[in-house]
Request: fold
Amino acid sequence: MTYHIAHEGTTTEAIDDADLWSGNTLNVPALRATGWRPAPIREFILKLVGRCNLACRYCYVYTAPDRSWLRRPQLMSAPTLAAASRRIGQHAAEHGLRRVRVVLHGGEPLLAGAAGIELAATAVRRHVPAGVELDLRVQTNGVLLDETVLRTLHKHRIRVGVSLDGDADSHDRHRVRANGRGSYAETVRGLRLLCRPEHRDLFAGLLCVVDAGTDPLAVYEELLAYAPPSVDLLLPHGNWSSPPPGRTADPTSTPYADWLITVFDRWYATSPRQTRVVIFEEVMNLLLGGHSRCEQVGLSPVAFLVIDTDGTLQQVDTLKSAFPGAPDTGLDVFAHRIDAALDHPSVAARQIGLAALGATCRGCRIVRVCGGGHYTHRYRHGHGFRQPSVYCADLTALIGHIRRRLHSDLRRVAS
Reply:
């Protein structure tokens, strides 16, 4: 198979599959020899805290095969934070970036307290060059949101994403304390505080992990109750060797698509729309010829990196759900520039679009919309990541449904 690899400009160069891949490992020197250059990193996930105050049953860190969190620091130290911030600033300067997003993450980042958030925000702002717009965010379960923390978030203009899986019954199925007690009441208390008029401008949106066994409209209506600027509906992380709940090998079974389609029809039929729903907007954008802006769908280069509490550079921590060491690059902020990660085979593979996919995906009629699905969801033990997504049937059904709705409306407008 010969691919045409796009370069920075408008030219492309053909490269044979045998030259590009050795087994399941991308040959980055051969790729660079074509003139291809990676996209710079524009989003950094800063693992401020390596532990969590919840024990979510679907967690891709603490219940996953990769147990490396046990040997990493519980908190990112001040020297590590300074080194990470310097590397972020250096990367932005070297690539002339106009905007960089840094997400304070965990575990649960608010376990660092207001003082830890202050330290992190100050360090990052100190090292990101003047003239570069810094989009600082924190992703939290909301349990520890209080007035003290919110004052610090206001001070540093840090926007807040909250994880909420719907109504009490849906949320407390999985998002529990170590003793099994649900966290819904505590999350909602923090979320209601965030939604007060004096704090509302900090609210970035809600993240919800889909459980195909819940009532999709009950979940969606609960999310809408907080008037979120956006909603990110995420598929639980799984793969062919460790399938997500309810996802069987039967290609006619599409439980996750059925759930999402129900929400899509409710969302799409409402005018004006009450919120942005990322996955729906992305699929529609791709169907209409645009480019993807998230890793769930599409073929656009993935341009983010994780910095763990010990300063190691990780591809994406959802890969912990595949096998031990899956996210590792062997690099860290003390000894390596961010650019070094761009030559890691798995990092590069997530930037070359169609050429990273296996034959089944490359021959699929919806590949430029689906993009093979989330990289993490393609893994199969012994075969690597050049597989279709474990959610292939669901993505096919969802994209087909959205396409039909769009085409119907476009025909009506044109008639």
